[in-house]
Amino acid sequence: MGIRGVIAASDPHTAIAGAQILRRGGNAVDAIVAAKLAATVTELPLTSLAGGGACLWGNAEDGYEVLDFFAAAPGLGLAALPVLDFAPVAVDFGQTTQIFHVGKGAAAVPGELVGLLDLHRRAGSLPLREIVAPAAKWARDGFVVSAQIAKIAAVITPIVGRTPAVARLFFPGEHMLQAGDRLANPELGDFLHALGEGSPDTLVAQYWSSLVTHFGPSQGALITAQDVAAYEPVAREPLRVPFGRHVVLTNPPPSAGGGLIGAGLRIAELLGLGQETFLGRQHLVALTTLMASVSDLRQSGYDDQLRSDPGWIHDLVAGAGIPAWVERARAQTRRRENPLGATTHVSVIDAQGMAAAMTTSNGEGCGEALPGLGIHVNNFLGEDDINPGGFHRLAPGSRMSTMMSPTIVVAGDRPCLALGSGGSNRIRSAILQALLNLLVYHRSLDEAVNAARLHVEGEKLWFENCGLAADAADALQAAWPGATCFDSPNLFFGGVNCVASLDDRLCGAGDRRRGGVVMLAED
């Protein structure tokens, strides 16, 4: 029996869809596109065909490329802002309540549909009909909701219950979604089926037309015909970070996350990490120093610098100026943290040595759907995390920044790891810690992904006190008064899904914080 590939995802249906395609002879890109199409059905609170994302893929023979299909700021051709449908909504996370902004005026120009289609055209090998089939079937016939998705849907009830069109997608029989419920989305199923059977270009044109009609200025929103005409996925060279005998490939500007991960790896080298007892006091104190330095970097005009001089980050991850960051005092500003981080990640490596890592998001959704299509539209313009300069401040047509950081680690250009995470601002911390656990502390794949995590933002520390040495938690609390301690693994810290090719053996690890699933595709 031969192994065709391995996939790690945050939902069983997502993993099944990708594994099915690998068994049929599809490559890693075929599998990851099928998986993400399935996720738009079965992980609906986290991703949608009206969301956005990024994918890093490639192999040793053809090299590696990033496809950026994250959202763009809308409003091209508008002389002034219309009166916007843009309203605050309080979401209760139990430990804290956070305000998000929803309504049609929170919707940015989405890229997920055209991004997935473009990626398949560039590197897929199987017909689109086969790639779309699992998602279309589950949307039409229904699927069994996982405990993880039911939990997330319950958290964002004030958003998804905002309009009848969206409530229908989340509340079968008008009751709160429960694990084990059977949920269907026939309108989306019909659209996906038509996408595989007909002309994708015609259906994409209809999709864009619906966005302009229902999310344009006359509807209290900003998406114009010029916006959709100008939007296209952008292929980029990955950011390359040499690290020991490996090279870490990740998402380049205008993404914020990849550069922060690269800077974190450089700081780890300067700190000489690797000799401490894993999860012991010295390890965690050094790790908080590293994370505080990365936080300083983010809060010191980092996003503006990326936009004005994208090449700057290449010099930084090569080591220029890094020592100064290690010596900086922690920044005094504080940023609000989104406890959910409505993002989801899939990683794939196939038997031929192609790797793919893809992260996508719908934000929390804006509470409005595209009529007749069953597609919940993003609220990227209403998230503090990706609008650090304030709402509706970005120039129309500009790509929005994101912490999404799909990552591939290569040794001699051959992929040995593919990983990424959901989790808003914690994405950078989650991926960085998983990389350090693997490449510096040499932990097993499962331990590297599921070991206790921490995150620093400004003057604030969050950490998981599970598996730590006896005095480690006390040391963190003493060094960071007011730190938030979680007594068990929590989805706040992201969801790293990682696959690996180690000694010619394919394997993977899913993050149990977010229902991680790993499947080997066998003949």
Count of helical segments? 17
Q: What is the 3D form? A: globular
Count of domain modules: 2
**From the alpha-carbon coordinates, what is the Rg to the nearest angstrom?**
21 Å
Strand content: 15-25%
Structural class: alpha+beta
The spatial strand order of the largest sheet comes to: 8-3-2-12-11-1-22
State the end-to-end distance: 6 Å
Q: How many strands, which pairing sense, and closed or not: the largest β-sheet? A: 7 strands, antiparallel
Which short descriptors sum up this protein?
single chain; alpha+beta; seven-stranded antiparallel beta sheet; 2 domains; six-stranded antiparallel beta sheet; Glutamine Phosphoribosylpyrophosphate, subunit 1, domain 1
Structural summary, described in words:
- This protein is α+β, with helices and mostly antiparallel strands and 523 residues long.
- It folds into two domains: 230 residues, no CATH class; 206 residues, Glutamine Phosphoribosylpyrophosphate, subunit 1, domain 1.
- The chain is built from 17 helices and 22 strands.
- The chain has a seven-stranded antiparallel sheet, with helices on one face.
- Strand 4 and strand 5 form a beta hairpin.
